Amino acid sequence: MSAITLDGLIKRYGATVAVDGLSLEVEKGEFLTLLGPSGCGKTTILQLIAGFLVPDAGQVFINGEPMAGVPPERRNIGIVFQSYALFPHMTVFENVAFGLTMRKAGREVTRHAVAEALELVRLSGLEQRFPKQLSGGQQQRVAIARAVAIRPRVLLFDEPLSNLDAKLRRQMRTELREIQRRVGITTVFVTHDQEEALTLSDRVAVMSQGRLQQVATPQEVYRRPATRFVADFLGETNALVGVVRDVDDDHLTMVVGDALLRAPAAPGLRPGARVALLVRPEHVAVRVTPTRGLNSLSGHLSQAVFQGARTAYVVRAGDAELISTADSRAGAGLGSDGVFAEWDAADSIVFALDE
Amino acid sequence: MIEGSRWPSWLFRVAIAAICLFIIAPIAVVLIGSFTAGDSVVFPPQGLSLRWYVTLVRGHADLVEAFWVSLELALASAALATAVGLLAGFALVRYDFAGRQPLTLLFLSPLLVPSIVIGIAMLQFLSTIGLGFHPAGLLLGHVIITLPFAIRLIVASLVGLDPALELAARSLGAGRLAVFRRITLPLIRAGVVSGFILAFIVSFENVTVSLFLVSPQLVTLPVRIFGYIENSPTPVVTVASALLLFASGVLIAVLQRLVGVDRLWGSAHS
Amino acid sequence: MSDATAVARTTTTTTVRERRDGSPLAPWLLLLPGLLVLVPFYVVPMLSTFLLSFYGVRDFAVVTELTVENYTRIFGDWFYLRSLLTTMRISLIVCAFTLVLGYPLAWEIARARGRYRAALTLIVLAPLLVGLIVRSYGWLIVLGPRGLINNTFLAMGIIDRPFPLLWTEAAIYIGLAHVFLPFMVLGVLGSLQSLDWNLVLAARSLGATRTAAWRRVVLPLSLPGVGAGTMLVFALSMSAFVTPVMLGGKAARVLAVYAWQQNTVVLDYPFGAALAVVLLLAGGLAVGLYMRLLRSGRPGMTVS
């Protein structure tokens, strides 16, 4: 049985549809990330699960129980908010103990649970501090401890790392994952940061405009994006627009300008269809002499942007522009004229252009 | 704030100082004038003494009584306005319902309608239904004019409260009432207390609406002073005014500490 | 008013609102006590006064026949018409007075920092919390025949007997300007505070002198605030009557004073009601303009 089942959820705000018929299952103990741009409906889903919002249609099940009519305080869900939402008038201890106090847990039980939760987030000893006296990272940990202390059936995170600076964010990311593994609580994590999604999750659910685009492992959504949106949203991509010339068993050939490109076939594409071929910059190599007949665009190097460990090369080939990233040491000797941008057919992916 | 483009002309500074003096002077003279040793209202006072304070307490039962009336009235109307305002403010900020905007306007509108018009309307209506000069009329009038002040401060503190705090408490198992009692109320306490104090000051100082609603048996201090001035001001009246000033002065100081006087009109003014 | 819209605006942007699991009755239950006070004792009286203003009086009794008699009396009788004009004249002069004093003050506050700013703000705003009575009484002492000003001039030998300052229309200007000055400062400050001071630097860098930068950049951008402050002060002055009575005495021939007398001395309620309606409209028109200015959302109009 799934820990969370969302069945055909619809949520409207006036005329806008925030969640548009969304169904999703989250397995027990799984770490699932809802990834999407702001306004895609991911936070709405979190609030539907938490019971802060009531769906216009569809159902939320937790451990198989339907949640309709169950108020948030009786759902037993731990939430870590973007603003942490630590009660400013309470000490760290009182914050973490709040959920247990509400459950009328005994004093000893409470003290024990709070100590355990604070140990988990490595904050033992700060019980008597007030939230204001803590750093951003520490506040974050208190928020996690508070959510975990009630031994919730599900943990929800609403962009919890977005208020931290870049370095702390990376550090908290690793730690968050560790904590989740230790407690083993099913987790739904909402973010618009692809790096966060890719590094943290067992599975990533990519959302756009209230709908799911793809639900798969991080590797798969990155390597095999199901839609053009997923491909664009995760990582950098080069897009080349052309027309399919012919299709064989598992490959197709397409024409872009005067070049022929070969790519894995996609279902439903016939010769004559207008398509976009996507290839990631790290899969594009820039060479002085061509090493293959197909998937080799001749052009000239218009820019080389040094980015530290890697350098981005911008190749102009006719109307198209391709970006290639490579180890900074590798391409040092490239001249500015007459280069070839090349890639393996297997590294590219083709989508029909919806007209 | 802009280096090198300050307008340091001493003339401008003198003008600012003069304007500040213009603001402070009439208030300061009431304070200083109340300590006069002389027999009439003159300035500068002829010697300093507490004799008129003594005279007021010993020989002007009407003013002393009016002081207590004003105090009780202000306490009662501020308490009512704060309680009613707390409930209404919470509804206006935290709930979404048809008619929320017009109702917000209704609750704040006594700030926009001239006090004299409120006074006239209430006087006419209360005497029509036979409640003219009833103490309840005076109390209701004061609740109505202090309500917007209480609501404004309460609403401002509610709006400034991160809604996630309440949601977090809900998710941790607290019901609506528990959330309000344990999270919302403690966190907007400063707003509620300042709302009460502001309502108290407004009621305590009010003369315009009171003039229409007082009865010969129940007169507030500002109305009593107003009556005296119409005849002839004496140093006793100066002392009575100084008492008003002391009361509001202390409360203004408290408000300044709690929220800052500039915040009272900071978000918007009227 | 700006409050109402501000409240409405802030609350609509709050992402999470309890339209969710609560009963739709909950907000109404919370609003009920307030409505029980406001509807019967504020809304109904206002409406009944409006209605009453269209009734007549015969033999000391209200006659419930609709008539515009009361209004024709106000606008047809030279006595009341002149009073209306006097009230408007006084209000306009008070506006000008508060603007002259308030603009420099707002300018200084907008540019001041730290403790100086806090002190200035307190000086300007705290008097709002000191009642009308105290402030007007203070002017009584300052302007009186043996008051601060006369005594000072007598002592300096500039005059040889007290100069009549009190019980004049000028005393009313001064008293009202003192009472309403904070509102003008707040209005102008609203504009000046949201003004990007880099604009002044930009103007200076483009060759404008200080005065030119002020005249061509700051002044136009602060005009909405000036307008807002002026409207508010005008509206407040139109219906003021305590200060005019205290400082002007018999010179206080303003409409509000007559409205007060009609309702408390003469007891002609329908006519008193009509005077109240006229006062409400006179102030209401100004406030309406003020709201339009606010809503037009021109630069500088966002009152932070």
How is this structure best summarized?
The complex is a heterotrimer of chains A (355), B (270) and C (304). Chain A is α+β, with helices and mostly antiparallel strands and 355 residues long.
Descriptive report:
Chain A has 355 residues and is an alpha+beta fold. Chain A has 2 domains: 4-233, P-loop containing nucleotide triphosphate hydrolases (Rossmann fold, 3-Layer(aba) Sandwich); 238-242 and 274-352, RNA polymerase II/Efflux pump adaptor protein, barrel-sandwich hybrid domain (OB fold (Dihydrolipoamide Acetyltransferase, E2P), Beta Barrel). Chain A has helices at residues 42-50, 92-102, 107-120, 136-149, 166-183, 194-200, 218-223, 228-233, and strands at residues 4-13, 16-26, 31-35, 57-62, 65-66, 77-80, 154-158, 186-191, 203-208, 211-216, 238-247, 251-256, 259-264, 274-279, 285-287, 296-306, 310-317, 320-327, 339-342, 348-352. The model of chain B is unreliable at 1-5 (pLDDT under 50). Helices cover 74% and strands 0% of the residues of chain B. Chain B has a single domain (60-266), classed as MetI-like (MetI-like fold). Chain C has a two-stranded antiparallel ribbon. In chain C, strand 1 (56-58) and strand 2 form a beta hairpin. The interface between A and B is medium-sized, with 26 and 16 residues.
Topology (SSEs and partners):
The complex is a heterotrimer of chains A (355), B (270) and C (304).
Chain A: E1 4-13, E2 16-26, E3 31-35, H1 42-50, E4 57-62, E5 65-66, E6 77-80, H2 92-102, H3 107-120, H4 136-149, E7 154-158, H5 166-183, E8 186-191, H6 194-200, E9 203-208, E10 211-216, H7 218-223, H8 228-233, E11 238-247, E12 251-256, E13 259-264, E14 274-279, E15 285-287, E16 296-306, E17 310-317, E18 320-327, E19 339-342, E20 348-352
Helix pairs in contact in A: 2-3, 2-4, 3-4
Chain B: H1 10-33, H2 51-59, H3 61-94, H4 100-108, H5 115-128, H6 135-159, H7 163-171, H8 176-187, H9 189-205, H10 208-213, H11 221-231, H12 235-258, H13 261-266
Chain C: H1 2-13, H2 26-52, E1 56-58, E2 61-63, H3 69-76, H4 78-111, H5 114-125, H6 132-143, H7 148-156, H8 169-193, H9 198-205, H10 210-238, H11 242-248, H12 255-266, H13 269-295
Antiparallel strand pairs in C: 1-2
Record keyword descriptors for this entry.
heterotrimer, B: 270 residues, mainly alpha, MetI-like fold, 13 helices, 74% helix, C: 304 residues, two-stranded antiparallel ribbon, disordered N terminus, disordered C terminus
